[in-house]
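Thread: quick sanity check before group meeting

JM: Hey all, I'm pulling together slides for Thursday and realized we never actually wrote out the predicted structure for the chain we discussed last week. Dropping the sequence here so it's in one place. If anyone has concerns about the input, flag it before I start.
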Amino acid sequence: MTPAEAFAACEVSVRRADPDRYFASLFAPADKRPLLHALYAFNHELVRAGEAAREPLVTGIRLEWWREALYCALKGRPRSHPVAVALTVFLSQGSVGVSDLDDLIAAREVESSPKPIETLTALESHANATSGRLMRIAAQLLGAANEVGDVIFEAGIAYGLAGILRSLPFRATHGKLFLPIDLFAQESVTASEALLHSHSAALKCVVDRVAARASDHFGQARKIAIPKNALPAIVPAALVPRYLSLLAKSADPLRERTEISQLPRQLILLRAAMRRRL
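JM (edit): ok, ran it. Output follows.
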């Protein structure tokens, strides 16, 4: 497979699986878009590694495959996978190191661990290590990493927490909730009990608490002007209020999926890009 074919496959994957970041990438210079697509396709493969397997051991094996694929790509000997081939070119650019991508793998390993998330602060840290780190790598790729630390910290956590809440229906089908156990304890229930009673007021309270924290971080990010060259990395977070609004209206957060249709998504992203603020 040629690099051009690999990048084309990455673009198709991102457009299908990650439309928020795909449409945001269209604000990037043409020569940077294939690299962004490779990054986001890699991230999607890491997410898929956890989604495709119910057992942490299997997820770990799949993530380790991608860790090894990273270092093969660094040596110019990519594995037979479009994302792995694209990563060879991606890493050869020199703006992003292999350790940055390895850190994304390590963060996803947390999600497959049987150990629960203890606190809301720990969940925020995880959102920063996944969504926030991905934004930082994208900004680094765009040459804007040194200008956007504060806004990426806030926007990354906001978008990450919203994403965790949006993933609840999928996680529930796997018999788990990636939410802080201390919040359930404050409602006098366990996560296992919440899974059995998806309409419960206790679960709604936990979801609302996480959503409120996401909204707080978004509010802080919205105060900061975004440098033009960093917009493609950060602007997906402009969708957080719409996602939180849809989640607030949901009668059953473990059954109802939260999606924004294409035209409203594009309009929200365009408005934020034109204002250079979320």
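AS: nice. The chain has two domains: 1-114, 116-278. Residues 120-141 form the longest helix (22 residues).
JM: adding both to the slides.
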